[in-house]
TrEMBL record:
Belongs to the phosphofructokinase type A (PFKA) family. ATP-dependent PFK group I subfamily. Prokaryotic clade 'B1' sub-subfamily. It is found in: Cytoplasm. GO terms for molecular function: 6-phosphofructokinase activity; AMP binding; ATP binding; fructose-6-phosphate binding; identical protein binding; metal ion binding; monosaccharide binding. One of its GO terms (biological process) is fructose 6-phosphate metabolic process. This is ATP-dependent 6-phosphofructokinase. Gene3D superfamilies: 3.40.50.450, Phosphofructokinase domain. Pfam families: PFK.
Length: 319
């Protein structure tokens, strides 16, 4: 393999730049040309492709977002769109592709591989919702953003007798809610993997107040219900003073943490190694601090498992 491509796709996440840097530098280290595809799969179909040099990825390791830009493309979900992409790759003499993104992006990489173009997937999403890896690039940075917000809200919460509800990202996966809730000492964590009875939670809050508890923090993943809805039900059931904060896209931004930069560097470099070993159709990940790789189809087929022991612990510690 003499020329490889790299693209970022789906929602951006802090650390994607560090991953692109690793792909470029690792490729050049092995005398392979690396081409950047700008604007995800949409950019691929349009041939928005440029050769990247060592210096092209200088000064980006600390930046959030992705300098390659990301996009969502419906057209790329069709076989015609995918063929367009393959033609562009062939036109530029590229013979392997690293795709950094979430499970939707993996679907694209799987489709290209099935049509004879080798791709390797790198898990880049703040949601931590990809199977085949314990952690995704951007998750740790997002958690640190959320914990910063929780700590600040806790300061004001302890000055007033209020119930604070903080809505965090996570449509299908409760990882952000669980990890930040545990680290932030939240009284209640609402995750999409479990069924929740808000009225029951309100009852518990009342009991807490009777025991002298002055304030509470509830973390809700957006996939459960909106923070405002949780706030409305709790207000109705308890008449407590409730305040809702929806963190939204601040969770996507910011300079990546050390953990995310190191993870991105390791995963990006491993993806290049796999392509050079002739192993397309793989997805890289980290397990027990070791680099692992899976058949990308297998990685897509397996459900993402939230750490339920951690959830149990969070419940035990928030009595
Ligand atoms: P995030 O987890 O941040 O949402 P993602 O990678 O899952 O990231 P998606 O929007 O689901 O984000 O997917 C990104 C892009 O991947 C889509 O816009 C589309 O171009 C491509 N893609 C998604 N699903 C498929 C599919 N079934 N076949 C081919 N390409 C796909």
């Amino acid at each position: 393999m003499k020329k490889i491509g790299v693209l970022t796709s789906g929602g951006d996440s802090p650390g994607m730049n560090a991953a692109v840097r690793a792909v470029v530098r690792k490729g050049i280290y092995h005398n392979v040309e690396v081409h950047g595809i700008y604007g995800g799969y949409a950019g691929l179909m349009n041939g928005n492709i440029q050769k990247l040099e060592l210096g092209s990825v200088g000064d980006i390791i600390h930046r959030g977002g992705t300098f390659l830009q990301s996009a969502r493309s419906e057209e790329f979900k069709t076989r015609e769109g995918q063929q367009k992409g393959i033609q562009q790759l062939k036109k530029h003499g590229i013979d392997g592709l690293v795709v950094i993104g979430g499970d939707g992006s993996y679907m694209g990489a799987k489709a290209l591989t099935e049509q004879g173009f080798p791709c390797v997937g790198v898990p880049g999403t703040i949601d931590n919702d990809i199977s085949g890896t314990e952690f995704t690039i951007g998750f740790d940075t997002a958690l640190n953003t959320v914990i910063d917000a929780i700590d600040k809200i806790r300061d004001t919460a302890s000055s007033h007798e209020r119930t604070f509800i903080i809505e965090v990202m996570g449509r299908n996966a409760g990882d952000i809610a669980l990890w930040s809730g545990l680290a932030g000492g939240a009284e209640t964590i609402l995750i999409p993997e479990e069924k929740h009875d808000i009225k029951d939670i309100a009852l518990r809050l009342k009991k807490g107040q009777e025991r002298g508890k002055k304030h509470s923090i509830i973390i809700v993943a957006e996939g459960v219900m909106s923070g405002y809805e949780v706030g409305r039900i709790i207000k109705e059931e308890t008449d407590f003073d409730t305040r809702v904060t929806v963190l939204g896209h601040v969770q996507r931004g910011g300079s990546p943490t050390v953990k995310d930069r190191v993870l991105a560097s390791r995963l990006g470099a491993r993806a290049v190694e796999l392509l050079l070993e002739g192993k397309g159709g793989r997805a890289v990940g980290i397990e027990k601090n070791e680099m692992v790789d899976y058949d990308i189809i297998e990685a897509l087929g397996k459900p993402h498992n939230l750490d339920m022991n951690l959830y149990k612990l969070s419940k035990e510690l928030s009595i």
